């Protein structure tokens, strides 16, 4: 599925990631742990090419990500951000269907799919509410639904629980794990919480001093 | 891009313009002013171009005879010149007779000209239009000739007036072009600033940057289109309410066929769209490149 080989990245000659090797298989629920500034978010940004790596290769289903246009690559992935990145002027439903709009999907089918997923995460009644009226946990669930709408092969979640209290964080991750099974999608979750990794991870790595180490 | 993409894009364009109503209206107004100037000046230039060319092509010349000289003798001298033909004498009496046709019933108005105030003249044609000013100059220095009148003088006056209008007009056009361009550029920067998050999110979830950018180009095109169409209507108004009445009064002054008029309107449309498109293109370049 996603394979990183000898990936390195520096900022102003300061190495952040050094010879990173990772493999995420289809349907896997994987975690990447590291302290603040360890390069976790940089790694995720390299995967969806918001940043470009210095060396090494990244492939998705055996195809180098360099061979795909950025937007083509991003359509194969769903991205969840720590700050949710929902648009305040659009309703919950409009935020979700935005993901389908950019692909030019049929609006009726898209809305039906969005409502199905919203029902699944328990927010069916909030479809026409602005995100600012929702709690942090609810906003993150909306972001998860948006990431799932286009049925991506993998979801990259960059500290999805970073802005949530521990209880809500556990609920969100539980939901993500269930959706991963139901929707058949791999997930790479970035976190600095040891507790969440011990509770949910099937596979995990730790980022330390620029290198990545798989936990057994 | 499919029909749904187009529909969503149109929705976004509408919302975007509504959100930045003030800036969009100011941009439209400035494009309108700049394009009205472009249209009016082009209209004046092209309408008078034919007049100047016509006047310049006239080969006739007239010399007024100094007092104390005999008009017939001057005419004989002129006839001998190889560059001159069709020499014709126009005495003061003949000229007065002709003038009196314009003052039927009010002939007394011409009384003051009857005591030798009118001069005799000789009319003739020059064989080569290129030699007009040269011949006029040498005749002006000839004994017995007081004044030389020829159509190129009129053309020169017209051209000189037009040149001045063009020069000041050009400055005004450049000024309004720059202001209109800056206004559209700032309006789009403002729109981009307001929608920075939206654009970033769209790009991160897989929007084609070309489509995202096209949305802004479309907004620029719409602003340019509204501004230039309004200016076209204004110039059509100027044509019918100013140029045409003047043209009917002074028939030789303006001359413009429909294709030239359409060319002027086309220029306005092209320039207006160009400003909208270029300003929106340049203002969106950086942001979309960086995500």
TrEMBL record, chain A:
GO terms for cellular component: plasma membrane. Pfam families: ABC_tran. SMART domains: AAA. It is found in: Cell membrane. GO terms for molecular function: ATP binding; ATP hydrolysis activity. Residues 2-216 form the ABC transporter domain. It is a peripheral membrane protein. CDD domains: ABC_MJ0796_LolCDE_FtsE (cd03255). One of its GO terms (biological process) is cell division. Keywords: ATP-binding, Cell cycle, Cell division, Cell membrane, Membrane, Nucleotide-binding, Transport. PANTHER family: AMINO ACID IMPORT ATP-BINDING PROTEIN, GLUTAMATE_ASPARTATE IMPORT ATP-BINDING PROTEIN GLTL. Belongs to the ABC transporter superfamily. This is Cell division transport system ATP-binding protein. It comes from Psychrobacillus insolitus.
TrEMBL record, chain B:
GO terms for cellular component: plasma membrane. One of its GO terms (biological process) is cell division. Residues 61-148 form the FtsX extracellular domain. InterPro entries: ABC3_permease_C, FtsX, FtsX_ECD. It is a multi-pass membrane protein. It is found in: Cell membrane. Its main location: membrane. Residues 171-288 form the ABC3 transporter permease C-terminal domain. Pfam families: FtsX (PF02687), FtsX_ECD (PF18075). The chain crosses the membrane at residues 23-44, 167-193, 214-241, 261-282. Keywords: Cell cycle, Cell division, Cell membrane, Membrane, Transmembrane, Transmembrane helix. Part of the ABC transporter FtsEX involved in asymmetric cellular division facilitating the initiation of sporulation. Belongs to the ABC-4 integral membrane protein family. FtsX subfamily. This is Cell division protein FtsX. It comes from Psychrobacillus insolitus.
């Amino acid at each position: 599925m996603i394979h990183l080989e000898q990936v390195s990245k520096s900022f102003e000659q300061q190495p952040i990631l050094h010879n990173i090797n990772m493999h995420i298989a289809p349907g896997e629920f994987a975690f990447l742990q590291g302290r603040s500034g360890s390069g976790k978010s940089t790694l995720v940004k390299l995967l969806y090419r918001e940043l470009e790596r210095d060396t090494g290769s990244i492939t998705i289903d055996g195809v180098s990500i360099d061979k795909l246009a950025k937007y083509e690559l991003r359509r194969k992935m769903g991205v969840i951000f720590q700050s949710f990145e929902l648009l305040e002027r659009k309703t919950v439903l409009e935020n979700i269907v935005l993901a389908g709009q950019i692909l030019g999907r049929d609006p009726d089918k898209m809305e039906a799919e969005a409502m199905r997923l919203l029902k699944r995460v328990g927010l069916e009644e909030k479809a026409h509410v602005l995100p600012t009226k929702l709690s942090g946990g609810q906003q993150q669930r909306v972001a998860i639904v948006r990431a799932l709408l286009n049925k991506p092969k993998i979801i990259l979640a960059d500290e999805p629980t970073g802005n949530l209290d521990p209880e809500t964080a556990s609920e969100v991750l539980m939901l993500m794990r269930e959706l991963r099974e139901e929707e058949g999608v791999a997930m790479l979750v970035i976190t600095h919480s040891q507790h969440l990794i011990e509770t949910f991870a099937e596979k995990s790595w730790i980022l330390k001093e620029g290198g990545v180490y798989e936990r057994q | 891009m499919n029909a749904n993409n187009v529909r969503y894009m149109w929705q976004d364009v509408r919302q975007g313009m509504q959100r930045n109503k003030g800036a969009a209206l100011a941009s439209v107004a400035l494009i309108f002013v700049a394009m009205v100037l472009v249209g009016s000046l082009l209209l004046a230039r092209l309408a008078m171009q034919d007049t100047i060319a016509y006047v310049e092509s006239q080969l006739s010349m007239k010399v007024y005879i100094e007092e104390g000289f005999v008009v017939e003798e001057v005419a004989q001298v002129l006839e001998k010149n190889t560059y001159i033909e069709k020499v014709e004498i126009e005495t003061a009496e003949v000229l007065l007779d002709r003038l009196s046709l314009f003052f039927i019933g009010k002939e007394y108005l011409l009384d003051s000209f009857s005591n030798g105030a009118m001069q005799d003249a000789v009319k003739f044609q020059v064989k080569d239009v290129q030699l007009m000013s040269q011949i006029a100059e040498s005749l002006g220095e000839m004994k017995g000739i007081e004044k030389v009148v020829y159509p190129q003088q009129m053309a020169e006056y017209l051209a000189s007036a037009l040149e001045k209008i063009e020069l000041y007009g050009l400055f005004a056009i450049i000024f309004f072009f720059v202001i209109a361009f800056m206004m559209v550029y700032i309006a789009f920067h403002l729109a981009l600033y307001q929608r920075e998050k939206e654009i970033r999110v769209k790009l991160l979830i897989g929007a084609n940057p070309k489509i995202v950018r096209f949305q802004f180009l479309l907004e620029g095109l719409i602003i340019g289109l509204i501004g230039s169409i309004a200016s076209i209507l204004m110039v059509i108004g100027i044509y019918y309410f100013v140029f045409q009445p003047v043209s009917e009064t002074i028939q030789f002054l303006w001359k413009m066929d429909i294709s030239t008029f359409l060319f002027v309107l086309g220029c306005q449309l092209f320039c207006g769209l160009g400003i909208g498109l270029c300003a929106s293109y340049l203002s969106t370049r950086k942001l979309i490149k960086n995500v």
